[in-house]
Amino acid sequence: MLTAKENFLETLKPDGKPDRLVNDYEALAAVRSDPIFRYIRGNRVKGKTTQDPWGVTVTWPEDQLFAFPTEWNKVCTDVTRWREQVHVPDIAGRCSDPALWTDAKEEADRLRSEGKLIMGYMGTGMFEQSHDLMGLSDVCMALLEEPEAMHELLEAICEYRMTYASMLIENLHPDAIISHDDWGSKNSLFMSPDTWREFFKPLYARFYGYIKSKGVLVIHHGDSYMEPIADDMVELGIDVWQGTLNTNNIPALQKKLQGRMVLMGGIDSWIDRAESTEPEIRAEVRSTCEKYGPGGHFIPCITYGLPGTLFPHVGPVITDEIHRYNLETYGVG
Q1: For residues 302 and 52, is the Cβ–Cβ distance under 8 A?
Q2: Global confidence as pTM
Q3: Which one, of 190, 267, 269, lies nearest residue 225 by Cα?
């Protein structure tokens, strides 16, 4: 029986020989104790409205499960004036002190000693950062009406992300980086594939190309409909598309991709609620494994961008049902 780490790495190979389905995030350990994460996202506090280092207003009402960037007090009200209005956080100046990385390095070393693949975390990708600053509608309009200014703003965000990745790699030596950017809704892209290819693909080619050049796996989180650009994602060097919603035609993608990119997700988040029952959770997980497991290069998990579920009774049932499926189907759990 392969270890969780070995099984994951075999799943990533086009001609690999995993002995079972990878069970959720079992092979991966996300490290979020690094100083950049603390600086950029550490202000998100339940029950409070705050501003992050970009100046984005973030609210987290007591009765909500998440913190949300809002469109109140937009940071960038005119993309042609973005240089005046947007101030990119100085993560190199604020987060380079080696002492600030001690906790994260110790956490990474501990998890590595436990046989885990270390996963650096980079939330809020280039598209997401732009609409945090401007609002989604304004970004979509600016892509059409002010392409030159949008190219410039996105280039600045890309440079920030490049610095971020460089610092993670230098200090944590991760095996993988999970990078978030949702390019669509549940059922469609937010823009045409050609628009995405014009504005975002070249930047991601540089960004992910750098990460790959350092021998680090690229895991792209996008819990959205992105099927029309799946081949482009392969060209970017993405090893795992994490968050693959079942509104994408997963069996068709498996046939098309032939193992060039692993699809990770498929389990619908509707089961993650306070009143969900064990039988319905198991039914959703079992259905997902049966539909997509035989197609290969698929990892069942709920489509969130990090391990775990919102309601604590849900996660253990998911992992146990994948374990049961593996035992029954492959003879190993």
Answers
A1: no
A2: 0.97
A3: 190
Residue 130 burial (10 A CB sphere; 0-12, 13-18, 19+): buried
Q: pLDDT category, 71, cuts 50, 70, 90? A: confident
Q: Name the E strands within the chain.
A: 28-31, 49-51, 57-59, 68-69, 117-122, 176-180, 217-221, 240-244, 262-267, 298-302
At 95-118, the pLDDT tens digits run 999 999 999 999 999 999 999 999
* Residue closest to 296 by CA, chosen among 9, 3, 11: 11
Determine how many CB atoms are found less than 10 A away from the CB of residue 93: 8
Token pair for 255: 């046939």
- Nearest C-alpha neighbor of 40 from the set 99, 124, 100: 124
Sequence-separated (6 or more) residues with CB below 8 Å from residue 59: 48, 49, 67, 68, 70
Is the separation of the CB atoms in 303 and 223 below 8 Å?
yes
Structure tokens at 12: 């990533």
What are the tens digits of pLDDT across the range 56-70?
999 999 988 888 888
Burial zone of 307 (CB within 10 Å; 0-12 exposed, 13-18 middle, 19+ buried): middle
In DSSP notation, 270-313 reads: GG-STT--HHHHHHHHHHHHHHHGGGSSEEEEESSSSSS-SSTT
Measured distance CA(190)–CA(269) in Å, rounded: 21
Which residues have CB under 8 Å from 204's CB, separation 6+?
126, 236
Nearest to 212 by CA among 245, 235, 186: 235
